[in-house]
Structure formats: C-alpha cells, structure tokens
Amino acid sequence: MPSVRPISPTEHRDHLAGLPSASFLQTPGWAKVKSEWRSESLGWFDDAGRQVGAALVLYRQLPKVNRSLAYLPEGPVIDWTGDDLAGWLDPMVRHLRKQGAFAVRIGPPVVTRRWTTAQVKEGIADPGVRLLGQIPPAERTPGGARVVAQLHELGWRHQGVEGGFAAGQPQFVFQVPLRHPDGTQRTEDEVLKGMNQLWRRNIKKAAKEGVEVVRGSREDLPAFHELYVHTAQRDHFTPRPLRYFETMYDALCADDPERLTLWLARHDGDLVASTIAIRVGEHAWYSYGASSTEKREVRGSNAVQWAMIRDAIAAGAAVYDLRGITETLDAEDSHVGLIQFKVGTGGEAVEYAGEWDLPINRPLYKAFQLYLKRRG
C-alpha cells in the first residue's frame, strides 16, 4: 500500500511533468487561482520511496467550525486501473482526517461512457429522448465501471447532479479526439472533415471575411475581459472579475509557460471573439470564451475555436476538450444550444465517473449538505 505525505509544489509539478496528462485543476498553480481555499500538495510513495501519485487538495472551512471539506477537483492523480482503490484512498483519507477534514470530495478522472456525434444529434431530434443517459452509449468502459463499483463498496457517495451541472466539475463533457485508435495523430484535414457542414462553412467564411486569429499576451487580458463581460450580460451569467483571469494567467504560466494561451479573433481591428485555452501534456481544454454580438456574421467564434484545435494538433495533444455539457437533450431546454454548438465539431459526448463524497464526521457532513441546500 503506498504511503501519503505532503510534498512541495516543485515535487508536485515535477511528478505531473512525467505523466501523459492530468487535469489542470490538479496542478500546483491551481492552488493560487483558488486562494480563498487553504491548499496542500500530496504525494503517494511506494515501498522503494518512488513517487507514484499526486494530488492538489483544497480545504474549504465550514462557517464557525474549525473543520473543512477536503476537495480534490478531477483528482487525485493516481493509478485508477487496479482492483485495490482502498490501497490508494485509505492513506489519503487518514491524512485528511488529521488535517481536520469532516468529509472528502474527489473527482476520479475516469471515463465511464461515450456517445458519438450522430447519437447525440439523433437524441436531440427525438422528442422521446430527454437525457443523454437514455441513449445506449457507443462505449461503456470496463475501467470506469470498476472504479464506480469500488467507490460504492468503500462507502463513497456519488454526488448526482440535476441535468449534468454540479457546484463542482461537470460530469458530462464534449471532446474532439485528436488521435486515431492506433495512437497516430489526426491531421487538420481529418479533423475538419469530421465537423458538420455548418462548422466547415463558418470556418471558411471567417477566413474569407478576413478574420485574424492571434495568440495574445497578459496585456490583452483587459480586452478579453471587456468582451467576456459583454457576453455575460447577453447570455445572463455572472462574470468573474478581471483579477481572477490575471491570477489564473500568472499562476498557470508559472507552472509551465505553455499551459495557458489567450486567443484573440479580430475583424478590421474589432475584437469579435476571444478565448482562453489550457493544456497539460496531451490534454487541451477550451476554458473560457467571449464573443461580440456585433459582426456575428463574420464567424469569429468558429475561427478562434479552429485556431485552438489546430494549435492542439500541432502540440501533439490527444484530445481537445470543450468542457461541460448538461445531460439534457430536450430541444426546449436553453442548454441545448451549447450542446449543438459543441456537437458541430464532430467529437463525442463523454461521461466521467463524477464527484464522490466520503463523510468522515457524519453530523457535520449532514449540516454541510443542509447549508448547501439553503444557499441554493
């Protein structure tokens, strides 16, 4: 059974650098982004003293009580393929209990099911289908089923979410595979051919209209943020402050200068779309996006997405991840537009194992759940 102890951010960073990938939410830089949480880097070590796992733990203290929820977003980064998850998780829980955790929340980075673009489109078109889970998946992963079964046996509780969005991380995402099943890289042409006709036409139109997409620098964050606030007002969500993005840029780029990239799409000098992309090893994410209501006809959003996908292919990434979608396929639901936009890329809907809680102090855990319900 591996042992667990705190490690330095440098040890944490070095361990992740030796892996094909890990979630950016498990990098030491993310601790600086979430500065309102107390944070700790943990390492798993085998009998020979070799590091075999890592985690970023974020501690959220309960109001008026000196106890915390220990949260490992999309982690820990351990070997999830075996039959002895207890051997990995038990020493972690023992350590977190000593740190004053009343409960632990994890997000195993393990895929459970996948659906093709065609299946998702058919589901949206079928009035009898309201949820993705009603469609038999193209793939059920044995590894995912094994992890879910073991967590149940070990007393962890799955945090079911209404419609697929949680207070934590999304269980359903949309991804474009950038490699063939044999591991070879897909070409730009192959990825483009996998997109629907509308996406291909919009990418072509943006080029014809003279939309220019460039990588930005930290100095371009205010321009991104202004467009992002405009997008938030139009699409009715609460925007994050500029300071959040400045902190995110500095923290993630301190881990690796290639980790975060700001992209800007301009037409005749006007900023029409802007996005933030993140990459850890072979996994590239579309993280934040903004678009102008004016000049929508020049298709800046498609142009900037295509630039990010091409960049991910050039970097040798295995997957381009458009992040969360809801589970709903109801044509009347306002979230369906987001799914349809992402489905146009020709990728696949992917379900992860989701987030799981282990109550350590049951009365406090119950109080915490009531507190969350009241907050709404």
UniProtKB/TrEMBL annotation:
Highest taxon of source: Bacteria
Transmembrane segments: none
GO molecular function: aminoacyltransferase activity; ligase activity
Any single biological process term in GO: peptidoglycan biosynthetic process
Keywords associated with the record: Acyltransferase, Cell shape, Cell wall biogenesis/degradation, Ligase, Peptidoglycan synthesis, Transferase
Family listed: Belongs to the FemABX family.
Protein name: tRNA-dependent lipid II--amino acid ligase
Organism of derivation: Nocardioides simplex
Lineage: Bacteria, Bacillati, Actinomycetota, Actinomycetes, Propionibacteriales
